[in-house]
Design goal:
Elements (H helix, E strand, L loop, with lengths): L1 E5 L3 H10 L5 E6 L6 H4 L4 E4 L3 H10 L2 E4 L10 H12 L5 E7 L10 E2 L10 H20 L3 E6 L1 E3 L5 H6 L5 E3 L7 E3 H13 L6 E3 L8 H12 L6 E3 L7 H7 L4 E2 L2 H7 L8 H10 L3
Parallel strand pairs: 1-2, 1-4, 2-3, 4-5, 5-7, 6-13, 7-11, 8-10, 9-12
Helix pairs in contact: 1-7, 3-4, 8-11
Length: about 290
């Protein structure tokens, strides 16, 4: 079985680590001028986007395709790179998964959102994700391909968690009454993607998050306690003093339901809250 990843990174690596022991091989897109060693050293076959024959061959052999690259002003970069190549190769993978964001829902004042909730993105980035989702779902319908969408909150895991921010002195605890956020451990994301590959449904859309939305200040305080550190002092929310990325983060609050992924895919998060996830990361040396 073969997986092709457009935009190999944190999420693609986690899925690779999960599938490789089961006999899957992985290839991934390589941008012009990029060093292929980053991929080959990870056991991934690089596929230059500037080599149409290599790209078409990789797509024709792929059983599953994962799309992780964020959209820009011109939309999802995978669309112009892959759709013509899929058509030329007459490739029909069993599954195409597009990684989106729960930012497509916008701010819901702490209320629950579900996959059929109205999309009301408030940021440019969220609006671009709405467009990219629409474009890929239309490609699926038009070409008869099984395209699925996976909406993600903040992703954390080994090497990318509150521990790293605390050790580097970058962690902040912002007091924002009523602000609640969902999150997902990267290994739970990989498990959900594997479950979707095993049960492909054209047009399937899934929220991928843990079971317990929580304030970010609570997460940082728990991580500090595990490290035996005093948590950073809590400061009052001041949107104007935050970076643009942090401002977008704190401008929205919602609870994200993962009920559909559980019911339809039989998936359950191994780390149902940040407590189990952070405890496991620390035990693994993170």
């Amino acid at each position: 079985m073969k997986l092709f990843v457009f935009g190999y990174g944190f999420s693609g690596k986690a899925l690779h680590n999960r599938l490789a022991p089961k006999g899957w091989t992985l290839s991934a897109s390589l941008r012009p001028g990029a060093d292929p060693a980053r991929l080959t050293d990870a056991g991934v076959t690089p596929v230059p986007l500037g080599d149409p024959a290599a790209l078409e061959a990789a797509l024709s052999e792929a059983n599953a395709i994962l799309l992780t690259a964020p959209p820009g002003a011109d939309g999802c970069p995978a669309l112009p790179a892959l759709v013509p190549a899929l058509a030329r190769a007459r490739a029909f993978p069993d599954w195409i998964g597009y990684l989106s964001t729960t930012g497509v829902y916008g701010d819901r004042g702490g209320r629950w959102v579900f996959e059929d909730s109205r999309l009301a993105a408030q940021s440019v980035e969220g609006a671009r994700r709405v467009g990219a989702e629409r474009d890929w779902l239309e490609v699926g319908r038009g070409m008869g391909l099984t395209v699925t969408v996976h909406r993600l909150p903040g992703i954390y895991g080994l090497g990318r968690s509150a521990f790293d921010r605390l050790r580097e002195g970058r962690a902040r605890r912002v007091g924002a009454p009523g602000q609640i956020f969902s999150r997902i451990h990267v290994d739970d994301l990989a498990a959900e993607l594997e479950a979707s590959i095993a049960r492909p449904r054209p047009g399937g859309i899934y929220n991928v998050c843990d079971d317990e939305p929580a304030p970010n200040s609570e997460v940082v305080a728990f991580a500090a306690g595990l490290l035996g550190m005093a948590p950073p002092p809590e400061t009052a929310l001041d949107l104007d003093a935050l970076s643009p990325q942090a401002r977008r983060f704190y401008a929205e609050t919602k609870r994200v339901s993962n009920a559909r992924a559980k019911a339809e895919l039989g998936w359950r998060p191994l780390y149902p809250s940040y407590r189990e996830g952070l405890t496991a990361i620390l035990a693994a040396g993170g």
